Amino acid sequence: MVEKSLFFCYNILKRKGVYVLSRLVVIGNGFDLAHGLHTKYSDFMEYLISYEQQPKVIQGRYIRLDSVSKQDQARHRFYDAISKYIPEQDLWSSFEEALGYLDYEQIQEDNSCYFLDYGDDNWRDSANHDFQYMIGENLSFAADIPYYFLEWISHINTSVPSIVSSNVINRKCLFLNFNYTDTLEKGYAIPSSNILYIHGNALRGNNLILGHHDATLFQERTIPAFNAAEEHGIYLEDIEEDFRLQEAREIIKDYFRKTYKDTASIIRYNQSFFNSLTTVNEVYIFGHSLSEIDFDYFAEIKKNVPLTCQWYISYHDNMVNAQNLIRRLNIKNFQLFQF
To answer: From what superkingdom does this record's organism come (predicted)?
Structure first.
């Protein structure tokens, strides 16, 4: 493998008087970061814990709740909920993958006080459902993830000057955009008709798609329950597991289902786009991490472009992910460049 400096060239096929887009440009978050946009997951965290206006503080440590807007309170509650059972060091560095790292055992342990023994003096009919209900409440943040992502992205100013040569990025290219921002439209005057926002566009009000990519979390894996018998003295001989544990397990699996990025379905929905890549003879990849979570998309690109297609693949700090992509897809014609 030879690393070369990026050679900028432009090629448009003209067939029967119709211009055919022969260059596909793939855009990842590194593209926005290179333009100075604050689109890291850690920036999302800062947005969630920020205040519209500086709140009033009592005795140097207590915040007066009536000085905090309802919107701020809601964002802070979302932050507390999502970071309670997902390791923060993962959440704010690799947000999507981290959604699959939920500590479901700890959720069950923390709510074990609602798992009453059937002979408990405090038993009431609602105890048949309290345990499952509280677990569902702890995981309700999942439904709000796209909302707060859209709200955050909508606050980012994407009116930035271009930094990539117009010989490479221009109105005669086709774009597969993994970002939720409109940087291409604002900074490069790219027509929206040339761009597929594969996971949605915030300013268009699309439903944003994000999530982990481990289907076994809800399809195959058995979610272990906390040791109810040991902790509560419940001993059920010759009968099935307590239905409350079964229902709790299904609620946890439903969380993993809701936070799953179904790339196969997304590809099928956009199949006409991928099928149109037969005329593409150049693929440029700018600022994409090339992580496992999005591998299926690149496999679909490789499947549809001609064997002679030339790939120009960017990397930032190291080339490991780019090298893995090249090896796994058996890409023969490629150049690596630092971006």
So the answer is: Bacteria
